[in-house]
Specification:
Elements (H helix, E strand, L loop, with lengths): L17 E6 L2 E6 L7 E5 L13 E2 L5 E5 L8 E5 L3 E6 L12 E2 L9 E3 L4 E4 L7 H10 L3 E4 L3 H6 L9 E4 L8 H10 L4 H15 L1 H12 L6 E4 L6 H13 L3 H9 L5 H16 L5 H4 L7 H15 L2 H7 L4 H11 E3 L1 E3 L1
Parallel strand pairs: 10-13, 11-12, 11-13
Antiparallel strand pairs: 1-2, 2-5, 3-6, 4-5, 6-7, 7-15, 8-10, 9-14
Helix pairs in contact: 4-10, 5-12, 6-7
């Protein structure tokens, strides 16, 4: 049962060719290509990597390199030099003291072999509790737009803290069936919350096609990037928005679903922040274990939502067309956000 699963056990491995892992003050870089790594370079932007190669320790298998973390750098991108080509990678999750579930969606390969540009689109939970140090770190990223998917009530209770140079746009995702009806539905299906969550996803997709289309239009405009898309937890509303964006770029569903499950790494923080909201439901006879599935990002939730979307709309392209998203915007989105996975020397 879901209640017995640990959140991290629900995280699917990302089908990527290189990834970065932080271990205390060290950085571990992993890669899958069967080619000898010559050097590793670093920079604070994916298109500004150079200088002298970093001192690295490569393991015996030739698939992992240990590097000392660069002092004072809030965000580092690495280029793995395999001789005639380079592979760019970075830490996917940003380590923020007051932020939660703040991730870069760059580096994912598309079906035609290109990749999503690093450092352009971020996804996150609430930005209301960002510390001053967090704001300074995000300011270094050059964020231009914060795309807030929360309701007007959520925004009124906890306004975003914006990094310097960033503007805010409110793009609320509706999923309204009335507060009382939601509680009644929860109670009636308290032993089938997975089914209820999938119904909520279906409702959000049906009610918010033009809103999701608007988010993709914002992402296609270089004047808005880098941008961050967020809601309260960064899991459901943000999960759907980012899934639609990545699918529109041509990223395979397998990768999109794996990215969705990464929110489980933030489960403990999300559960703590959502506890006051969940506590309101205890008076209706719920307990924490029963409500726990609502905080998990299970692969089947997104898979079933996307399968249902295709079943009812015929295809993702038709869903976008019905939402008012034209081919010109999709073409611009791909032209702006996709690059070659490998950078030739």
């Amino acid at each position: 049962m879901t209640e017995s699963l640990s959140p991290t056990s629900l995280v699917l491995p990302l089908p990527v060719e290189a990834w970065v892992e932080r271990r205390d003050n060290d950085i571990l870089i992993h890669w899958t290509p069967d080619e000898p790594l010559l050097d590793v370079y670093a920079g604070t932007a994916p298109d500004a990597i150079g200088g002298e190669p970093l001192p690295v320790t490569i393991d015996a298998a030739g698939k992992q390199a240990a590097i000392a973390a660069l002092p004072g750098a809030s965000r580092v991108f690495y280029a793995l030099d395999f001789g005639h080509r380079r592979l760019v990678t970075a830490e996917r999750t940003l380590h923020l003291s007051g932020g939660v579930n703040f991730r870069d969606v760059g580096g994912y390969r598309t079906a035609d072999g290109r990749a999503v540009r690093w450092g352009q689109i971020y996804r996150a939970g609430s930005l209301a509790e960002l510390s001053d140090d967090d704001l300074a770190a995000l300011g270094v990223l050059g964020l231009r737009l914060v795309c807030d998917l929360r309701s007007a009530d959520e925004l009124a209770r906890q306004a975003d803290r914006l990094p310097p140079g960033a503007s805010h746009t409110h793009q609320p995702i509706a999923g309204e069936v009335g507060r009382l009806r939601r509680v009644v539905a929860l109670y009636r299906k308290r032993h089938r919350l997975q089914e209820l969550l999938e119904q909520i996803y279906r409702l959000m997709l049906d009610q918010n096609g033009p809103v999701f289309a608007g988010v993709l239009r914002l992402a296609a405009d270089p004047a808005n990037r880098p941008l961050v898309i967020h809601c309260t937890a960064g899991k459901d509303r943000t999960g759907l928005a980012v899934a639609l964006l990545l699918l529109a770029l041509g990223v395979p569903e397998e990768t999109v679903v794996a990215d969705y499950t990464l929110s489980n790494h933030a489960f403990a923080v999300l559960a703590g922040r959502m506890r006051p909201e969940m506590a309101r439901l205890y008076s209706f006879g719920f307990n924490e274990a029963q409500l726990r599935p609502l905080l998990l990002a299970e692969a089947r939730t997104l898979r079933n939502a996307l399968a249902d979307l295709r079943r009812r709309y015929g295809s993702l392209d038709w869903y976008f067309q019905r939402a008012g998203l034209g081919d010109d915007t999709l073409d611009a989105l791909r032209a702006e956000l996709l690059t070659g996975q490998w950078v030739s020397q």
